[in-house]
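Proteins fold. Shown next:

***
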Amino acid sequence: MIIKENFNPYKKSFGDIYRALTTGIGRRLIWDLNPESISSSKKFKKLKNKYAGEKAVILFNGPSLLKADFESLKNTYTFGLNKVNLIFEEKNFIPNILVAFDSLLNEQNTSFLSNSPHLLKILAYDSYKDLKKRGEDYIYLYHQEDPSFCYDPSSCVVNRGSTPYITFQIAYYMGFEQIAIVGADHNFPNLPPMAKIKNLDEDKYHFHKDYHKKGDVNQYPDRLKLDILFRDIKLAYEMKGRKIYNATEGGNLEIFERKNLHDFINGI
């Protein structure tokens, strides 16, 4: 909450216009003039309803992800998030698609993102300036903050500070009817919301100790905000007759109906 002695609507309105002209609109125009913007848009639009009526699993990055039965996932479409590549070798598993919109994590993960052929990657448009990578396995999406859920993110995906929130928009656009999530422990520390913190110890809030490396600066999510985002995701899917299940082993996320991963995959 922001507390003010008084509120000037004119100042607020003119400030909004100024910020739109100097930031949002300016960034969008610059990106639209980039040839990669047109290429990425064409590739992304080919995914619309490509998997209509099918199931998918989204791999969150909590410690319980290590408990998931990856063998059973090999015939199910899976989304990986951010630095999920840290689990590839240990579990001999690669998801169908990687969604990565955390700028700090993408900077830390540049080597993998630049050298991961045959894995479709949907990335934040502003990562292109660092990666400079093109090809059929790269899609860069423009994103902007807004308090909405977007069913068609082909022009702009709504970014509310959460890669899972973006992933659910993409999954909806691709046509998936039912989604299960695993590794959603929802166990983040009680830190100032969205604060950038230097890690003094090994990471114990993700599936790998180097997800947030000791000594790196990372940004932990706001748990209260996440609760609101998950509520909004659930409502957005249910309004269209679609369903999300939580197939995480344990954890603290109770917004979605719980379902065993094997039961979800086998339609039980």
User: Anything to note?
Assistant: The two ends are 44 Å apart (CA to CA). The chain has one domain: 9-266. The mean pLDDT is 89.
